[in-house]
Each structure stands twice: as C-alpha cells, then as structure tokens.
Amino acid sequence: MYKIDTKVRYSECGEDGKIKLSALINHFQDATSEHSESLGVGMEYLKGIKRAWILNSWQIVVERYPKVHERIEVTTWPTGFKGVFGPRNFCIKTPEGEVLAYANTLWVYMDIEKRMPAKPSEEEKEIYGIEPPLEMEYAPRKINLPEEVEEVDTLSVRKYHIDTNSHMNNCHYVQMAMEVLPDEFVAKQIRVEYKKSAVYGEEIVIKMAKEKERIVVELCDECGELYAVVEFRGE
User: Is the pTM here over 0.70, yes or no?
Assistant: First the structure.
C-alpha cells in the first residue's frame, strides 16, 4: 500500500470551500503515478519498454468532501492482475481515520508501439504486489446507457487538457461532464467508463439524460462515437 500525507489546497476548492470532485480524482491519479515511481516502474521505465497503464473505468464513492486546508491521507494499492487488466483501489481518510472517499479502478496494460493490450510480466506483478480489495459494493465495469439523451453542449480539447500520453487526461472527461450538471447537484457516487481517447483540437459533443436515480453524461465525437460515459448519483 502506498500512502501520501497531504492537505486540501485553496486552488483545489470551489465556492463552498470544499475540494472539487476533479481535484479529488487528481489526488487518486497522482497517488497511482507516485506509487509506480517509488517502485521503479514509473514513466521513464514504461517509456523505455513502450508500455503504459491506461485507465479503463472509475467507481468513486464520496462520503464527505474535505474542506480547504484539511489534512488528508491518500492511499492506493493493486488488488490483482487479470490478464491485461490491473484493478486498483484508493482511499482518502482524515488523520483520525474518517473515510472521506474511496474508489475502485480498472487499468489496461498497453503496448504503445503495437497499440494493443499486453500482459504485464511476472516480475512487474511481483514488484507491485497485491493486497486485499476494499470492502465495498462493486459496480459493473460497463455503464448502462440511457435510451434517450439530449445534446446540451460542445467543448473543444485544449492544450491544457493533454497529458504525457498525448491524450486528454482522464480527469478532464469528468470535468467536462460536470459542466452540464444542475448547480445544486452534489455528486456522491461517480462511475466513468472510457471508450477512446480524445486528442488536441477535437470537438466533444456532450449529451445528457436525467433519470430518477442518476444523471448520465455521454461525451461523443462529432459522429456520435463515445469517448467516455459518466454516471453521477447524488444526495
């Protein structure tokens, strides 16, 4: 298990003085990166062997959004390796042990040169290790799409959206989806299923469906093909 002791910074908060969902997700992502770096299998290692861990899906549960300057502990750990897939858990707590948020993710190991999935080596699996998964209600990886959606916005992929893989960073899909949520909505359970990567200059068409217990946002290209699907459940 890898742990980061940190705090909620002013730049991570919204009007209510609490951490934004996007910043919460970034803490999870940063923990993943730092964990790999600490084990010697980080960015330079992966670049050298032409491999990358690509995020396939998120399942996030938020119990409470911490406030500005509040101390938090971010932990992450792999829970297994299944072929080309690597599930990973996350948890954010206060130093006193209050659980603020937790998540399950599924990553795909990719051969960047061949642009196809590849199995991690036994040595790589051993380096990461495996720990027991969180006790949580695990949702299916795939999100059920609504029967009807309404086109509500179109946004462009800007330079600041792009990460080291030359694609739009995982968090920005969620940020774009949040742009169309009702102002009073507070997301407490979030699922994301990534379909394909958006790159600089592409237009993302945002479609939404409001159902009884959830809001589903589809991020599509101009031909209607999905980049990602984001499901929100609130209070």
Answer: yes
